[in-house]
Design goal:
The complex is a heterodimer. Chain A is of the alpha/beta class. Helix content of chain A is 35%, strand content 26%. In chain A, the strands form two sheets. In chain A, strands 5-6-7-3-8-9 form a six-stranded mixed β-sheet, sandwiched between helices. A three-stranded antiparallel β-sheet of chain A has the order 2-1-4, with helices on one face. The chains are: A alpha/beta, B mainly alpha.
Chain lengths: 231, 254
């Protein structure tokens, strides 16, 4: 079943065309990774799907789809100075304390004392896991995650993605993910959509479409490293 | 009722409400807004003093003008907010001195609470209560907006609407504050108690209690100093708040 259908999508910001004639669809239960170099319009695409930006063309969500979104660059730096406790942050969503504890536990934050902790005082990894719990607590059906592991070390990154994968399985989610990490794409994605400045460069299951030639075309020469890793 | 009690009541209401509003000045962009708005009240105050009507009434239209200006600036230009505030800031002061009688300059700049009527105090209290109730209602939404506009949008929060409501509340409190502490200092009523409270809080509950509390204490202390030592009330309110801020630095948790 289709969760989302995009037809001839065009998005321009300040007169500059960012997305040109994009069409694709997302099926229920898919993990779709959106790949592409900086400036290819990945974040703009997610924001358009969320209805934040004006567009031309069609963005058709299945009726009443509940979307969870983790924006790019929501780093701890932004909240470092804020006298806001974990419990208060969850209360912004009007959820109960029990639910908060349950969801924190599901992302591996077990101690109850955490509720009192200032979110600026958490470690980067904890903060990111807490954000995931915060998104999931609204029980979304579709997740839009924009580089959820930016600024996290390799070990922490693996934790975040295996968490996401677990939730995807347990809760029958559909996931749209922006990431640069090709290992993650191979390991977890069911489908991949490659964007570059000209539009779609590839779409399909990663093992079929992500050839070395293609990656070189999207990213340029940097890809040598990955070629070595993935072969 | 004696003049002293009236000043005290008005002072407590305005300062506490300003302190509460200040807790939401978490974004840099917002924090910079109160300053120019305060300075923009000066031409209004000048007119009020010249023609003998209420200072807050004179200040209010200018604050509204200021909000429209800032809003337009933000929409129309890509200049940093700091640059824009500097423009508004200076023009407010310049405009005021164009027609402000120099012997009344002190009242305009640092306020005058020696002659407030019962009606004025009552209106002030009611307005402050209203702002407080409105702010309490939109507090959590404003907080989420200040954490991340994108997260707020996903929750279906109309950011422009809430920012406008917030700015409106700021406008009223700046106009009320202008009478008490003058056009130069009114922004400090919003900013300083909140900064002090932030230093001593690790959660919002405490923060949004301490900030209005510090505001109220500053007002009481300033008005007492005025009554019994004949020091100017407006500046003393702000200096009291600054003292609290300095003390908070000592106890700041790292």
């Amino acid at each position: 079943m289709k969760v989302l259908e995009i037809k001839n999508l065009n998005v321009a910001l300040d007169g500059e065309k960012i997305i040109k004639d994009l069409s694709f669809e997302v099926k229920d239960g898919e993990i779709l990774t959106i790949l592409g170099p900086n400036g290819a319009g990945k974040t703009v695409l997610l924001k358009t799907l969320l209805g934040f930006l004006p567009y031309q063309g069609e963005v058709l969500w299945q009726k009443k789809t509940k979307i969870g979104y983790l924006p790019q660059g929501l780093t701890q730096l932004k909240v470092k100075d804020l006298p806001l406790s974990v419990e208060e942050f969850f209360k912004l969503k009007k959820v109960t304390k029990e639910e908060t504890l349950k969801f924190l536990k599901s992302v591996g934050i077990e101690e109850n004392a955490f509720l009192e902790k200032r979110i600026g005082d958490m470690s980067t990894g904890q903060f990111q896991r807490m954000l995931i719990a915060w998104v999931l607590i609204s029980k979304p059906e579709v997740l839009l995650f924009d580089e959820p592991t930016a600024g996290i070390d390799v070990g922490g990154e693996e934790t975040i993605y295996s968490l996401l994968h677990r939730f995807w399985k347990e809760k029958n989610l559909t996931v749209l993910l922006v990431t640069h990490d090709l290992n993650i794409v191979y390991k977890y994605s069911s489908d991949v959509l490659c964007l570059n400045k000209k539009g779609i460069a590839c779409s399909g299951p990663p093992k079929e479409v992500l050839t070395t030639d293609l990656l070189e075309k999207i990213y340029g020469t940097e890809i040598k490293f990955y070629q070595h890793k993935s072969s | 009722m004696s003049q002293f009690i009236l000043s005290l009541i008005g002072g407590i209401f305005v300062s506490a409400t300003a302190g509460y509003l200040g807790t939401l000045m978490l974004q840099k962009r917002m924090a910079l807004v109160a300053g120019p708005l305060g300075h923009l009240t000066l031409p209004g105050i000048a007119l009020a003093l010249l023609y003998g009507f209420d200072v807050s009434l004179g200040a209010f239209p200018f604050v509204i003008l200021g909000i429209i200006l800032i809003w337009l600036f933000e929409m129309r230009t890509k200049l940093p907010m700091e640059a824009l505030t500097a423009v508004v800031f200076a023009s407010g002061v310049a405009l005021a001195f164009l027609f402000l009688p120099i012997e009344q300059a002190e009242a305009a700049l640092v306020g005058d609470i020696s002659q407030v009527s019962f009606v004025e105090t009552a209106v002030t209290a009611v307005l402050c209560l209203l702002i407080f109730l409105v702010m309490r209602k939109i507090f959590s939404k404003m907080l989420l907006i200040s954490i991340s506009e994108d997260l707020a949008k996903v929750e279906g929060i109309d950011i422009k609407k809430y920012n406008l409501i917030y700015l409106g509340c700021i406008a009223v409190i700046v106009a009320l504050g202008a009478k008490m502490v003058g056009g130069l200092l009114t922004a400090a009523l919003v900013a300083i108690p909140a900064c002090a409270a932030k230093n001593l809080s690790k959660n919002m509950r405490r923060y949004s209690f301490l900030s209005p509390f510090f505001g109220a204490i500053s007002a009481v202390s300033g008005i007492f100093l005025f009554q019994f030592f004949s020091l100017p009330a407006g500046p003393m309110i702000i200096i009291s708040a600054t003292l609290i801020f300095l003390i908070s630095l000592v106890f700041k948790k790292r």
